Amino acid sequence: MALNLHLLRLFTTVAQCGSFSRAGDALAISQSAVSKGVREFERQVGIALLDRTRGVVLTDAGQALLHHATLLFTIERGAEAELQAFRGIERGGLHIGASTTIATYILPPILGLFHEVHPTIQLRLTSANTRDIANLLTSRSIDLAFVEGPVDLPGLTLTHWRVDELVIVSAPSHPLAMARKATARDLAQHRHIVREHGSGTRDVVDSALRDLGVVPVETMEVDSTAAIMQAVAAGLGIAVISRTAAADMLALGKLQIITVPGVTIGRSLNRLAIAGRPLSSAALMFDRFAESADLGPKKQQIDYVI
After folding, report:
1. Rg for the chain, CA atoms, rounded
2. Which residues form the HTH lysR-type domain (predicted)?
3. Of 43, 110, 140, 223, which is the most buried if we count CB atoms within 10 A?
4. What is the mean pLDDT of residues 212-237?
5. pLDDT tens digits, residue range 121-170?
């Protein structure tokens, strides 16, 4: 038969408080009501749960039931907290910080879906390089942070979020685009358009190129992914950028992927947090929403694969 959860709560409170009177105080009901409820519960389950000859002492059956009841009411409290988070999210604002590629190309569709579900939340998105986003989080200027590169600052934790594929691109008229295939040596002989130092993309690309043995003869620094793509499309050099970021220009034929046999480059996109700092209701809900958003690979964790 199904357990009466009200009576189970009475029994659990008595067991945890060690007396009927203290259980009554905790539940704001009379001692007699508690005692009557526990007796009725024992009648319903068909077994003694308390040994009353020695005060309030649990029988073996009572001990076993208390274990399950404790787990059940712990889950109940968790459910109540989660519902409270849902209620709390409908008020206030949420300030998200993200490194440039994530803020420009990956978060907007997630924010759009989130806004449809929670239209009363005031959303704000700040875009900067990974180093600056980490500093904003440390100063508590933002509620959530999503970054592209490794971060090594005390008091911050990095949690994998999803994988972003990187591709080598050039203008369609570039010599490497017209070749059937390219080698690492070929890549080194051309100008590379790169992000500034402090960018997560720059860190991952530098690591991947080092493992390939590629030392570009020349580099040109640009402070945004969009500007890199325009520079590459204008024939100024080649670049390693996010396939997601390049999708539109690839589709329009303004960029072309350079294939290097046996080489695949990817990087882990991460959520950055202050260790021990609880998230607000809105931040917690968006974090879970972003984790479940189906916008591409999420589970595989790589920094670069060659």
Report:
1. 29
2. 3-59
3. 110
4. 92
5. 889 999 988 888 988 988 888 999 999 867 777 888 999 998 889 999 99
Nearest to 205 by CA among 245, 174, 165, 173: 165
CA–CA distance, 134 with 37 (Å, rounded to integer)? 56
Q: How many CB atoms lie within 10 A of CB 15?
A: 21
Is residue 306 over pLDDT 50? no
Of all residues in the chain, what percent are helix, strand and coil, respectively (each to 5)? 50, 20, 30
Residue 64 is encoded by which pair of tokens?
A: 């076993």
State how far the alpha carbon of 229 is from the alpha carbons of 175, 258, 290, 301, in Å. Answer: 17, 14, 27, 26
- The whole-number average pLDDT for the span 259-282 is 86
- Residue type at position 286: F
CA 131 to chain centre: 18
231 sits in which H/E element: helix 225-233
Candidate CATH numbers 3.30.1490.20, 3.40.50.300, 3.40.190.10, 3.40.50.261; the one for domain 165-267: 3.40.190.10
Q: What's the number of CA atoms in the CB half-sphere (13 Å) around residue 101?
A: 28
Helix or strand (DSSP H, E) at 268: strand 265-274
Amino acid symbol at 80: E
pLDDT tens, residue by residue, 3-34: 899 999 999 999 888 889 888 888 889 999 99
Question: Closest Cα partner for 290 from 162, 150, 122?
Answer: 162
